[in-house]
Every structure is written in structure tokens, then in C-alpha cells.
Structure prediction request, 281 residues.
Amino acid sequence: MAQLREGRFDLVVLLPNSFGAAWVARRAGIPERWGFAGRWRGRLLTRAVARLTSRTHQVEEYLALVRGLDIDPVGSEPQLQAPPEMLASARRLLDATGVAADRPLVGMAPGAAYGYAKRWRPERYGGLAARLVDQSGAVVVLVGSGHDRDAGHAIESSLASPGTSRRGASVVNLIGRTDLAQLIGLLASCQAFVSSDSGPMHLAAALRVPVTALFGPTDDRLTAPVGRHEVLTHDVWCRPCFFRDCPIDHRCMTRISEDRVFEAVARQMSTSLTSTQDADA
Prediction:
């Protein structure tokens, strides 16, 4: 609240539909507050747009919001481009961990802020990382916030088991060690990216990095990465449930096999590397 007041903003466009978001914006003294009406918050907004009557992808929902505000959006896919300084910062971070510049990079975000139900098992990520190192010659970079460190440590532990120690040097754990600018630079440097439904997944997709997205308790029809990406699910009667923790056996995620994910990432790496070689020719 204090930071919002200190910013002395003239206008806020509220993407969250919650009452709390509109209440905070009003309490912060922001004179123009635009967003979707509903959930008892219409009177807190200075411009309220009627919500869509049917559920649709969040990108389409946000585009409908800005159109309702008489703003004409350019394009329908989120797009980001990492500036040279972000790429250079990421390269310095990789150099410091001994990652050679000519090795293909695969990013992995094993955490999820929403809850553990979104996560794929760490040992599956570990097995996937080992196969990518052995069969594709890739360096696997683990990314995420400090809250995801437990997942990173569990992956490292699975790689430290007998017979896998040689792969550990090709799996770099940067979870909790990057700021947003470094994360963007790292993602933009990857040939492929693997994640559950998460913020880094959407960042990678916006950077045009091929994403393999694993969806379980959340609805891929609403929040899948936009563009030509691989979305893997296992249809069970209880998904999407939107639970943060699974009360049964987590079948929606555990039944997404390591083989399926590896095959998807391998396809994307092949396409990505071919595109890079064509661009350099």
C-alpha cells in the first residue's frame, strides 16, 4: 500500500478480478481505476467493463477488458524480447557456473506458487534432466523463486544417486538465485523449457521459447501457454479441480510419464536448433 501511494500513479488497469485488488487501488489514492465489474467491486472502479459471460482463455479475457476500455490491442499473443543487457547478465551467470556457451540449454521450473498439486514429481524432473544430458548433450538449468528451493534440492538429490553423479555437472540449480531481468535473459537463452502451470512458463512462451507445459489440477483451456507449444495432460475424472493440494493420489500429474515429456522436449529442441542454424546460415 505504501509503495503504491509513493508511486503517485494516475491510473491502474486491474487484471485481477478480486474485490481486494480494487479496494487496495482505491485506498492507495489512485484516481483512475479500470477493470472488470463484479464481485461487489463495481463502485470501487471509475471505469467498469462487463465480464465475459463464458469462460475463455485468460489472454482473451484480458484482451476483452482492454477493448472494453476503448483500447485497440496489437496482436493476440503476449510477446517479450530480452534486451542485450539481460542476455549478457544471464551469460555471466552461466559462465560463473561453468556452462559452456556452445551447449544447448533446457530450462526447467519445477516449482509452482499456487500449490504442490501443480508440481510434477522431482524424481521425474531428475530422470528427464539425466536423459536430456545423456541423449541431447544439453545443460539443464533449474529456475524459480526462493520458495521453490525444496524442489530444486530434491532434483539434485535424485541426480546424486549411484550411477548418475556424472550428470550433476550438467544440471545447474539457479532456483532463488536470479532477479527478474536475469530470469528473462536465461529463458531467452534456452532452446526449450519445461514447467507446470507457472509464471516462468508464460514468460518463456512470450519470449518465443518452445515450452512443454504439464497441466494437472488447473485448466489448460484457460491458462495454457499461447502459441505453438506442447501441453501435456492426463485426463482423469477429477481434473481440473483447482485444489492446491491433492486429497487423493495426485493422478493427474503422476500419470504424465517421463517418456511423454522427454519426447515432447526432444521434438522442440530439434526444431529450435534447426531454426537457430537456419538463422545463422
